[in-house]
Write a structure and sequence with these properties.
The chain is 47% helix and 20% strand. The protein has 510 residues and is an alpha+beta fold. The chain has three domains: 158 residues, GAF domain (Beta-Lactamase, 2-Layer Sandwich); 144 residues, GAF domain (Beta-Lactamase); 140 residues, 2-Layer Sandwich (Alpha-Beta Plaits).
């Protein structure tokens, strides 16, 4: 054949390649067709051939053990060039074949009839032929028709095999697609569950632990644990497959400087046993095949990471790497969000200057006390004329004095008792009282904390003008939180008006 194939020959070979038959063993269906052809023509030999670029290859044969014939001497080469049956009653009398070595050899062929195997696209890719070592009379039209029909059946068989192969490939592709979709769905659901952990009231290390347990099964892990990165630490096992070698479990929980493994990165994968052996020969020797370490953010001052191990030589796929790394980022984002939320909540509920709970916390706790039904006393107090002293001292020193007095208000409280800074120099206290306690005892209890504040100011070298106090008992004095607060404030204002230290224009309302 010419090194440069004609376009029509190239198209024919491409059509043949679509059937993928050349590497198959002789097929039973083709053998039956060859047998029918031989029986119909009453000849000893019949072949189903497929013609490649340089040879005719026998797919099925009857009466002859012929696997491959060079295309230059194959009779079928001539059959390929026409659309009808090629019949040669006596090959020794045909100028095309009389010198063919398959004819001239002792006992060579004398009779040949072949029909092209024509594909639906019109390409002749092979032949169905019958042979005899004896010459014959001319082939009848009925015999030609029979050979054409048998050749068409051979092509039908090829088409069935091609369609079946395509369906099988499509089924495998569909199975792979469904497997990938299920994997992606599981990974997505796992990542969603991990991201939703941030909405739960979990400490950072608790969030990381839950995330590791969610990852362990979907990532096909044999062991997973939580690792502290600050110095040598023992990993905390969170997942372990049944049957994990005891020696490997011992190695995995051995103290180790895990931060050196990450080297400042957020993820590291050991994808082969050789890689793992260079890092941790003890793990590889105990049965670990691949491993991964994923940063999970911080818990307080401690950095956390996931250690994942497989005892099977299954390298981390791109999808698994993406899952573990994305999960790590989700956990880090979740812990950061939780820390920011906690900071925002603390800022909203606590006073920055004194560190005491603020008005929002007071209102919440007051409602909770009322709903609880246990008796308590609500105390409202305020430093009178503190603005004058603050102006004389300056805001920095004045703020320091106010913080000192606030700390004194909070000192000595017990149980659920709590002091709150409402605003400016106005404070409130919620103090538990005994059910049988009288009003006098409650009011005495209410003035103990303000007295400590005045004493703290004196210890610092300052004499406060005074402090006004008002108290109201629950449930004796009021039937709602709002009414109780209003009454305590009225009593505080009345106490302030009675104080000789109150100066006109220096009335501290609140």
């Amino acid at each position: 054949m010419s090194p440069l194939l004609p376009p029509e020959e190239l198209a024919r070979l491409e059509a043949l390649a679509r059937y993928s038959v050349l590497d198959d063993l002789p097929a039973e269906a083709f053998a039956r067709l060859a047998t029918l052809a031989a029986q119909f023509f009453r000849v000893p030999m019949a072949l189903v051939n497929f013609v490649t670029e340089d040879a005719a290859r026998c797919q099925a044969g009857i009466g002859v053990d012929l696997r491959t014939v060079d295309r230059s001497v194959s009779f079928c080469t001539y059959t390929l060039g026409q659309s009808e049956v090629l019949a040669v009653p006596d090959l020794t009398r045909d100028a095309r074949f009389m010198g063919n070595p398959l004819v001239t050899v002792p006992g060579g062929y004398r009779f040949y009839a072949g029909a092209p195997l024509t594909t639906p696209s019109g390409h002749n890719i092979g032949t169905l032929c019958v042979l005899d070592t004896k010459p014959r009379e001319a082939v009848t039209p009925a015999e030609r028709e029979a050979l054409r029909n048998l050749a068409a059946l051979a092509v039908d068989e090829l088409e069935l095999r091609r369609v079946a192969a395509e369906l099988e490939r499509e089924a495998r592709a569909r199975d792979r697609l469904m497997h990938d979709l299920r994997r992606v769905t599981r990974h997505s659901e796992t990542l969603l569950a991990i991201s939703e952990l941030a909405d739960l009231d979990l400490l950072p290390h608790e969030l990381a632990e839950h995330a590791v347990r969610l990852l362990a099964e979907v990532a096909d892990l044999d062991w997973a644990g939580l690792v502290l990165l600050d110095g040598p630490a023992e990993p905390r096992p969170l997942w372990q497959t049944p049957g994990l070698p005891f020696s490997l479990a011992g190695c995995l929980t051995r103290p180790w400087p895990w931060a050196t493994a990450l080297g400042g990165e957020t993820a590291r994968f050991w994808n082969t046993g050789a890689d793992l052996a260079r890092w941790r020969p003890d793990l590889a020797g105990a049965g670990a095949c691949v491993a991964a370490q994923i940063a999970l953010g911080t818990s307080g001052e401690q950095a956390l990471s996931l250690l994942a191990v497989r005892t099977r030589p299954l390298p981390w796929t791109a999808a698994e790497r993406a899952l573990l790394e994305t999960a790590g980022r989700c956990v880090m984002t979740g812990t950061r969000r939780r820390a920011e939320l906690n900071a925002a909540q603390r800022e909203a509920n606590f006073d920055a200057l004194t560190g005491l709970p603020g008005r929002r916390a007071f209102e919440r706790d007051l409602e909770a006390r009322v709903a609880g039904g246990q008796p308590f006393v609500l105390v409202r107090c305020g430093f009178t004329n503190f603005g004058v002293l603050n102006g004389a001292l300056g805001h920095v020193e004045g703020d320091a004095l106010l913080a000192r007095c606030a700390a004194a208000l909070a000192s000595g409280l017990s149980g659920d008792d709590q002091v709150y800074r409402l605003d400016g120099v106005q404070f409130a206290l919620l103090l538990s009282v005994s059910p049988e306690g009288d009003r006098g005892a409650a009011e005495g209890q209410a003035r103990e904390a303000p007295a400590r504040a005045l004493e703290a100011a004196r210890d610092a070298g300052y004499e406060l003008p005074g402090i006004s106090v008002g108290a109201a008992l629950w449930p004796r004095d009021a039937r709602s939180a709002r009414a109780l607060l209003h009454l305590a404030n009225q009593r505080r204002q009345a106490d302030e008006r009675r104080s000789p230290a109150v100066t006109s224009g220096q009335h501290e309302e609140g």
